[in-house]
Structure formats: C-alpha cells, structure tokens
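Subject: complex prediction, re-run

Hi both,

The earlier run crashed halfway through, so I resubmitted it with identical inputs.
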Amino acid sequence: MTTMPDLEIVKNYFEKSVDAHGATPQGVDWNSEFSQEIRFEQLLKICDPTNPFSIVDYGCGYGALADYLTKKGFKANYFGFDIVDKMLITAREHHAGKSNRTFTEDRNLLPVCDYVVASGIFNYRANISFEDWTTHIISIFHQFNELSQKGFSSNFLTKYSDTDHMRSDLYYADPCYLFDYCKRNFSKNVALLHDYTIYDFTILVRKG
Ligand SMILES: C[S@@+](CC[C@H](N)C(=O)[O-])C[C@H]1O[C@@H](n2cnc3c(N)ncnc32)[C@H](O)[C@@H]1O
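This time it finished cleanly. Structure:
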C-alpha cells in the first residue's frame, strides 16, 4: 500500500543547503550554475517566448529562474512557490526591488497561470520508498495540470544514470513511465527531452 510521504525530512535537507550556501546553485543542491541553467533552458521550451506569459515556478528555491527569465529576455509574470520557509526568505531578499516576481509558501495563493515549471523538486526522496515517491509525483503532476492553462514541465534524474554514481537517497525516474502517464492523463502533446548531456530528463506537457 502507498501513502503520501511526510516531507519534513525533505524540508530539513533543503533548509540545510540554503543555510550553508545562500542564494547560489549550491544553496539549492545543484553542483554548478551550468547544471541549474541547462535545466531551466529545457523546462522553458514549454513557453511561447513571442508573447508575455505568467508562470508558476513550483519549488522555486531562491528564485533563480526569475533572473534567468529576465537574462534571456522573456516577458513573464513570475510566481515562485516553495515548501521551505528559509528558501522564501532568501528569495525575497535576493529579489527585493525587482518587479513581476512574487513568492509564496501557500500553494492555495498560487493563481492559475499559463505555465507551471518545476526544477529538481523530485530528486531528493531521503528514505521514502520509490513507490510512495512515485505516488507523490503523480499527485503533484495533477496540481500542475490544474494550475496551468497552456502547459507544464518538470525534470528528473534518470534511471539511465551510471550505477556507480547513483545515491540511495535520490529518485531516479523512469522516463517511459512518466511519458506514458502524462500522455494518458493530461494531453496528447507530450515531449520527453533526454538529450542534454547531464543525467537528467525533462517532460513537457503541452495543453490545447
Ligand atoms: C533542487 S532545488 C531547486 C530549486 C530551484 N527550482 C532551482 O532550480 O534553482 C528543489 C527545491 O524544491 C523545493 N521542494 C521540494 N519538494 C517540494 C514540494 N513538494 N513542493 C514545493 N517545493 C518543493 C525544495 O525546498 C527546493 O527549494
């Protein structure tokens, strides 16, 4: 039987990383700016850059995506959500005085947007079982579906990673399972990107 996981241990993990490293890629447990930004590049392929859009960054950390959107010339109204209070405190400090970005710890305050994107929120599963973590992912995918009008995207560590580099506390997803689930439950237009050099893939669910 599967149960919804208690996320306290996940919160503690990310609280420690932001405490130690602040508003940096290491502060959200990425090993470099390169690996953070290559993921953003894939996730944002869901967006039509020719028009302004609204976007939820689900598991926003310190909101690095908001800066990336500006750097790349996207015109976006950005809403960052995270479950770790210290991430949001850091995010609000880091983005003070910048426009078109809002941060919240209350999922119920998130508006329905054009797009929802999520980077790295499913990687750390601590001692939660693979089955329970998969149930958790599917439940959050349904939230992405409800919160997005035009589409959503999310990334995962891949089960096609080299075995000697895999950690027992991380979740290595099966891309074919998630592709199939999204195709059957959310949209006919689903893309799986598994060609960007790191041990990671991105799912894009395009609606309408
Ligand atoms: C690997 S970090 C990446 C942060 C940011 N997306 C980035 O790429 O810079 C994952 C973030 O997701 C948050 N997170 C984990 N599980 C979450 C959940 N179920 N809902 C919302 N945020 C979550 C963590 O607190 C952490 O800030």
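The pocket of S-adenosylmethionine is lined by residues 7, 10, 14, 28-29, 36, 58-61, 64, 82-84, 87, 119-121, 123 (CB under 6 Å).

- K.
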